[in-house]
# Entry
Amino acid sequence: MNTNDDISVLQNRLRDLADRSYNQNIYTFSSFLSLGELDAYYKIEKELSFASPALLGGYKDAERCLIRFGSVEALGYEQPAPIVCIHITPLMEKFADKLSHRDFLGALMNLGIERDVLGDIKCGEKEGYLFCLDSISEYICDNLDKVKHTNVKCTVVEEMAALPEEEPAEITVLVSSERVDGIISKVCKLSRSESLDLFREGKVYINGRLCENNSKAASAGDVINARGYGKFTILDNPQLTKKGKLSLRINVFR
# Structure
């Protein structure tokens, strides 16, 4: 979210979806929301609780999610979220490039597709699983035929197999306190001033919520996302070293 106006427009749209769900006894759905947009939702989450909102991304721990308003308890029936998973694979694996998230997203953007109809992209070495709105899935399957220099085919996944999982790298860092700015500085190899810039620019999220307090104490289990530098999870409580430093075990996702 770039401006207060953007935030207000999104929040009003979510209010309208919640009101329509409640007043018409139907399910309503937002488009996929980024971390910044989800933070705007969290700011009014209690206000919208009357419409039973739920975050859905197509799989557990999805980063980009849509919001569904309505529930079985309130409406008396279930309606699946309009999310489709597309498996993107090379036509000839032997000659395929190693493909990254950036490669898949760039190919989709080149088709003129708006980002808000696309959820997460889970990457294997030469394949990808794309979560998207069902309204755009046929267009993607018909038109996405190349990613980077690799010719690909797209298939809608009927039954989800195990998604490719990025293996995190476990590291240990020594910090003087549990302040999140110091931890980011160590993990991302940034100076303290560069770490502070991330907070000023609204690029730090803890457990999916924007963090503007650089002195906030991080805890075991926290998922910290420093936009542009990756995501990492604090594995356990810090251990005090003989030299008075705190030792933290961290899983880093790049």
